[in-house]
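So, read this over?
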Amino acid sequence: MAAASIAVCTAASGQSADTLRILAIGNSFSQDSVEQYLWELFDAAGIHVIIGNMYIGGCTLERHFTNTVGDKKEYAYRKVVNGVKTNTPDVSLSQGLADEQWDYVSFQQASGNSGEYETFEPYLQALAAYVRRRVPASAVFMWHQTWAYAADSSHKAFPRYGSDQLRMYRAIVKASKMAAGARNFPIIIPTGTAIQNARTSSLGDTMNRDGYHLEKTYGRYTAACTWFEAISGKSVVGNPYHPESISADVAAICQLAAHKACRRPSRVSRINR
């Protein structure tokens, strides 16, 4: 889906009025995507951002919603400001939502359930309504399309997809489109497609470090490139930032995989590099 234009909001956290504020409500898959490299990509493009991640490992939509009942302080609130990441434990979702005037808020399902739309509702509807009451009316809601596991993954949920990477990927794409459509989310962040694109390149099926979480350099960088382009609407191809741990050639593959995913979020595009 097309990215929305960058919103301008009131300054907070000592930032200027044109600071873009992005909050992920997620788990370790949002950790892989937004806590490393994303701030640097925006900074290299001259865009000021604050990035937040409401983190619980393996958290499902159901648990995110049940945490709103009783305002449970079960999150680690990770926040990146001026390139510096902080981690505050024992935070409730309402506290995280109140911390900034968020411009963008992302939702996602736990990875094992991410291709099973029947696990999304009624929790996504209720969670989105809860968040909507606590953020600016202009805040844009996004669905984070997560990625399929490595072909040899031993994750306990993989057999639900026949232990077939492409089958899992297609299920995630379908469920993501259903979720965004049902809740009228204007943006899908196609990280799953970007990772699948990168797997067609010379990198092959090496995008994961343990069969499901992303490899910590080019894997996470590919995800960050996807978030950057999906939110900013600017092509990530040619962005001057990449971590020193990867070569310029590998960075180019990551950027191209993300760019092609943002252009075609529901199908795999080959990377001939």
User: Anything to note?
Assistant: The chain is about 35% helix and 15% strand.
